């Protein structure tokens, strides 16, 4: 079956760019039938699925300066840079309520990527099977090595999905998406370098050699994924949103002005490329309709109003 997926990179607070792009797509009532993300990408994607306009903006911009959200104090007191209890329990249940009902019954597929630290392999969880556990799985997908605790779920020990599959394009393709829209949170010329913190990882995770191995190879995994995306972009199989201006934001950014600028950059980039996106979607829909006629397959629709 041919359909178009939406693939969301993580990146911590750089994910504010993704929030801006998704906000524009929601303003246009454009929803893709399949959405997959890791870390911040999965978090932003969940509010896209639940149809909650501006929720990502509020979470990313209005709470980032609260000590419970992100601070050195968190790490000293709780050994976690981001207070995961605050972000994944208090925020969605008290301060900025998450619409679990709309999320659960949304027609779109939603996949969260995580890393199994025992095997060093990616583990993916779908909304259809795990909708009641999504907050915990988003937490697992966002648990950055060393600065966040391991999340235990169904006899598995999980960490940040971006470790082993930072931009889960191959998973989307395996799930039947011949074409994909990808939202990246790095500039076009970014090349990831090998970590200089290998010795810390070996101390923290000495019982998990498979995890240590993928952490050491993380730069290669990322750069190879980007090369693949660029190749498929040139072939017309992938449509990419990436920051059009030089990034000024780190993954642990707390400067509200910089984050606001990044959010509106995402919104503006989506606005600028919207007509091109619609044309790209239309052409792929025509292609898949022609294939459907020949193969008698049903093509998943994309909602555009």
TrEMBL record:
GO MF assignments: hydrolase activity
Record domain PNPLA: where: 6-173
SUPFAM superfamilies on file: FabD/lysophospholipase-like
Signal peptide positions on this chain: none
Positions of short motif GXSXG: 37-41
Motif GXGXXG positions after renumbering to this chain: 10-15
Gene Ontology BP terms: lipid catabolic process
InterPro entries given in the database record: Acyl_Trfase/lysoPLipase, DUF6363, NTE, PNPLA_dom, YjjU-like
PROSITE patterns documented for this protein: PNPLA
UniProt short sequence motif DGA/G, positions renumbered to this chain: 160-162
UniProt keywords, alphabetically: Hydrolase, Lipid degradation, Lipid metabolism
Residues the record marks as active site: 39 (nucleophile), 160 (proton acceptor)
Protein name from the UniProt record: Patatin family protein
Organism: Lottiidibacillus patelloidae
